[in-house]
């Protein structure tokens, strides 16, 4: 019975792939070249995505966050990160899948996954949160819980237009912790998920709050890190 269900599932999957191939043929999200299989990037673009070494981010006395990134912030991943158009979460789903396929993930030690939230007004305007989509996919892939620990309590300006000092000030009191979940982080290894690590002020603001509740360790896993 189990075998026949599996065969039907495989058959339906093949049928679905066959029809969607003609209705919406797969193409590379960066160079638009058509592809045989539905994935984010063609093989030519994919080989330009090179791993970078983890970064030890010192955020306070005895408080360090190791930051792992899939690659440096440049194309082709940059294009997928900025493609956050209203209600089109497809590039984000592809990024999430790529993050799950990363060998880094096997070496990351964590008990709980948290993600950098958007302010509700921005969430409403966009329809999704890229960091949350990635966190949920990593959760499914690893079987580890994703908790909505962080709350964006202040609508901040877009960080990209600000200097390092302005970014820190912009994020002052931007986050709070959801009291429903904060007891769960005591003594636990936490991984913070975000799409982009630029100066680190977002991860710093979030980690400083989380450190107040005595986690064992905090790491960050982002799609891209800006490398100067
Ligand atoms: Zn391509």
TrEMBL record:
Q: Which CDD domains match?
A: PRTases_typeI (cd06223)
Q: Where is the Phosphoribosyltransferase domain?
A: 127-225
Gene3D superfamilies found in the cross-reference section: 3.40.50.2020
Q: Which Pfam families match?
A: Pribosyltran (PF00156)
Top-level division of the source organism's lineage: Bacteria
Concerning PANTHER family, the annotation shows:
DNA UTILIZATION PROTEIN YHGH (PTHR47505)
Q: What is this protein called?
A: Phosphoribosyltransferase domain-containing protein
Q: Please name the source species.
A: Candidatus Chromulinivorax destructor
């Amino acid at each position: 019975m189990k075998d026949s269900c599996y065969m039907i599932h495989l058959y339906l999957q093949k049928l679905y792939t066959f029809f969607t191939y003609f209705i919406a043929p797969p193409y590379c999200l960066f160079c638009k070249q058509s592809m045989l299989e539905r994935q984010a990037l063609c093989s030519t673009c994919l080989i330009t995505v090179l791993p970078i070494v983890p970064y030890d981010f010192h955020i306070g006395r005895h408080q360090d966050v190791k930051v792992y990134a899939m690659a440096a912030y440049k194309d082709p991943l940059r294009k997928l990160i900025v493609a956050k158009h209203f209600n089109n979460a497809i590039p984000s789903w592809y990024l999430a899948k790529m993050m799950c396929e990363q060998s880094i993930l096997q070496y990351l030690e964590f008990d709980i996954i948290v993600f950098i939230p958007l302010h509700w007004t921005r969430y409403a305007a966009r329809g999704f949160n890229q960091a949350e989509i990635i966190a949920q996919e990593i959760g499914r892939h690893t079987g580890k819980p994703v908790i909505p620990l962080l709350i964006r309590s202040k609508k901040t300006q877009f960080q990209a237009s600000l200097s390092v000092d302005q970014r820190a000030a912009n994020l002052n009191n931007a986050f709070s912790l959801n009291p429903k979940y904060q007891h769960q982080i005591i003594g636990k290894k936490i991984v913070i998920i975000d799409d982009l690590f630029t100066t680190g002020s977002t991860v710093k603001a979030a980690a400083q709050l989380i450190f107040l509740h005595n986690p064992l360790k905090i790491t960050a896993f982002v799609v891209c890190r800006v490398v100067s």
